[in-house]
Protein: COesterase domain-containing protein
Amino acid sequence: MLPSIGIVFLAIGYAVCEDSSEAGPRIQTNYGPIEGLTETLNDGTTKINVFLGIPFAEPPIGKLRFEKPRTPKKWTTTLETKTVPASCPPTQRKYIHVLGDKIDEDCLYLNIVAPSEPSTEEGGYPVLVWIHGGAFALGSTAQYGYKALAEHFVSRGIIVVAIQYRVGPLGFAAWGDDNFPGNYGLWDQRQALRFVWNNIVHFSGNQKRVTIWGESAGAASVSALSLSTQTNHLFANAIQNSASAYAEWATSNRVIAATEEYADHFKCEIKDAKKMKACFQKLTLDELYDAGDKFSPMVKLSDRLFTPRLDADFFTDDFNGLLAKAKPKPTMIGIASEEYLILALIDGSIAELPDFSREKFIKKVEEFAGEELFKEKASEVQRKIVDFYLNPKNAPTKKDNVYYFKKFVQLFSDVYINVPVLNEIRSKTQAKWPVYSYLTTYANKGLIPEQVPINKPTHGYEIPYIFNKTQPGFIRNEDDFEFTRILVETMAAFVKTGDPSVPGIKWPAATAVDFLTYLELKPFAPEVKKPLMMDRYQFWTLLTKHYEFDLIKGLHKETLRSRDEL
Structure:
């Protein structure tokens, strides 16, 4: 079982079970009529319209398994959209309990929450589309609910849309050719955005003022959607919390090795992609869970996961090529100060804390940067990493277990989140994208387990504040309420204007020259600072430049082979 903090940040257990037999608001979509719910916000007067479980694609079942989503068939009878949709099946059984009461492969639905009154703005209300995270292995709209987003954003004249997409093998299994290319989860996201583009006007929304927003794998998805020629025309702005598609875990051909592992387990044909896919289409969900429980522990991001890959279809070029062709979009992107802390809890590293030594740190480095990647230069690379993290100029004279554990967290925060995000910021500012960067430094100790010696924000720390979901027994203080206010107000301003600045907070965009300019997010006194993690970013930039294997992207620079292919 995940530690409680893991449940809060990685998968917020928040199933919403609204239902009503009373007549509600009706909308005629391009596919058919729907009826939703009318609710009142906490102020007691503001009315909102809620539509839950709107189909944006045909059910991806049977012959449509492992295929791109298809446009939903039209209907004539009014469809009741008053209950949250079933969650898409996760990679493993152990994550079922965090996804709500219903799990089904028929899961390609979205929710829309809008002001009940038509917009008086020209073109309609701006729109915020939420894309959940979960390492591309789990996630759903049921985890998060809609009430907090309604209070925070719909009350400010913003329509909120929450989408679902296939995850795990059902969403990303791939064999690497046109017959079994993968990226089905990304195509689901595209289909959902197309639905919004073509239908949001019926909800009094403005198709030209759509902002997409995601956290973790959702943020990596937003990153990918902003680059792909298949999708980057379907929205105006982007918000990314704690992830980038530039990371190895977020975009990698390692998914092919994971797919082969499944195929071998099920005795499917591995030399013919068509036959392999046909074999996969016949598997039961229980059989897929069995394989997931065996092969996909998801205890650390270096494990094989089912993720997006560069496929020459959704991604018609590498990221540099796509960026050169893409129209710049205002982007709000940032990280928390100790991103890997939650993952250290999940992967069990916290259990090693009492005797976490220099030797253990070195062993972690050796496992991560081994001879299979660097051959005879492996020890040299390992030594450089160890020296940089364990022997900085300000290192304490006495180094105890807590020191080495903190450095372990710092190292893998950089590898999996920080440096990929900074790479994306640098690339986009060079391409003249307006990029508004942030670093979250505030943490309430009540959200951190007692056994953890680091009282700093971790991966996805902002999400419980935005969705009003924290651990049982957690009591918010004045700083928490102020932190939430800053998050919500800057996000709302960004959705409406493409600039997160609000009264009292002038948030400058980073530039190609000062791409490490950022806003430190904290209660009462957010500050503009620079440069963001410059020493760590420079270290990884130089290390990548001098050696053949890129540890950040997980690729051999000359052959473009992944770890599993070397």
Remarks:
- The CA atoms of residues 402 and 453 lie 7 Å apart.
- Residues 1-20 have pLDDT under 50 and may be disordered.
- The two ends are 33 Å apart (CA to CA).
